């Protein structure tokens, strides 16, 4: 009679199918009386069963609760009780099945019990038992548990560790983002003990960890050590190192690696080129990026959507939107289908250039090709159309978005509220805010700031204060911008007392006023005639961090206030301070002094000598651009600079290198 071979999982299914009347175990009678024709190979963990002449296999009844796909192949009760009945002996593969199941379910307590039982029975531990558990620890984010088990493998379980188990643990550590811990683990196991020989996967993981930490030189050192360990770098090794070099702005070294890998017989993939193209685009070197695309074709690598998206993003960053749209057409010609990222990048670039109407046209082309815009694209377009003075189109865009089933988020609602406030429709914006809250979309500080700014601009400061209070009631965290808007609006409205109250509240909440808040407060004090208090705040700003340093607006506020008080000498001292602090005067600064010199001095002066001297002082500090702007102001006022001043500025602008740069820029724009 032929012998049929079953694996154990298959046998378990058959055993479960046999009914039984035992009280201790529902299936023990089927196990306690093995057939005379049943044999069990302990080494191979397989049953050899001579099939009976006629025996109907009964399937488990419905509602029995048994699920052979999900339940362990050997239930724990059978596992414990079967040796007592003498039905079979537990083999090593039985333990492995339990380990695998408990690992998949994340039952680490039961796993430890299985390991303890295996030790008591002196079972042989093999590496694959532990690799399964390492992966389970990784899924459960128990990194230290994985490291601890790795250290127990040799002494406690007498299992030899190889690079496979080491890589499993190293990958678990890196997946958790613990890059420093990964490098420590590598140094301790590989470098210090040298009991395990690393392979290419080991080096790929270590190089990745070092690059993530910004330790690119150490990553290069590890990369150069690979031949010592008889390990050959693959395309992933090169890509990881190139990406690390690009992120620390060492593009030339990354490009040099491209040549090196080809010499070593490692052929680049599209990912390799994409990393380098992305690095060059971020640096603004679009010419070299384009050459790399040509090199891709020569190497047989076809540019994919990532390549084109990277180039389009680079062109948008440089403001070359027309070239970006041309590249979109080329992308279609090369049968590479643009995705949402492609269109979104171009639309966002157009909006930033003030070409929101063109962005809306790109959106139509996007939808014609079967792509749907997301809420961020609509947010950019709605905001851009309002800024471009197209409120009707912006509202229409919003309605179209709702009709097309794109659910607005906080960003889109905030864009609409800000836009309505810009065109003086603060009450409509308030209604949108109410609708936003009803829809379960929580406003942020930017939303409330936009609405407050809208009410202040329409002269309704009381409503702006109500919005501020509502913001507190909604537990929305105030930020510096929100406080600055409130202080600025109150000061412009002449409500200095309320502004001071908000100022104190701001410090009480631990917020640091920015330059806008300081400037607004100084302006309010100066309007109220408290110029000295304004100067005190100004001196406080000078002692603060860079975010709160006075800018040209702050200086102009104080210069105007001092000049109105006929304190010309103090105004000139403040101007000197302005130049020393590296802040360049602008046309407002010039006009303030020109008006004062004409109206407050006797005899009046036209200010040409004053501005001429200011130009020379900026020139001596090598601030030629600022000096040229002062000359522009002089020319608009029909005030002629001295011939010697003209000569110095023109010579500075007409240096050969600068002329050549201007010519090169012109040629690049033409071609």
From TrEMBL:
Annotated keywords: Repeat
SUPFAM superfamilies for this protein: TPR-like (SSF48452)
Entries under InterPro entries matching the protein: PPR_rpt, TPR-like_helical_dom_sf
Pfam families hit by this protein: PPR (PF01535), PPR_2 (PF13041)
Placement of PPR repeats on the sequence: 199-233, 234-268, 269-303, 304-338, 339-373, 374-408, 409-443, 444-478, 479-513, 514-548, 551-585
PANTHER family: PENTATRICOPEPTIDE REPEAT-CONTAINING PROTEIN 3, MITOCHONDRIAL
Similarity remark: Belongs to the PPR family. P subfamily.
Stated name of the protein: Pentatricopeptide repeat-containing protein
Native organism: Fraxinus pennsylvanica
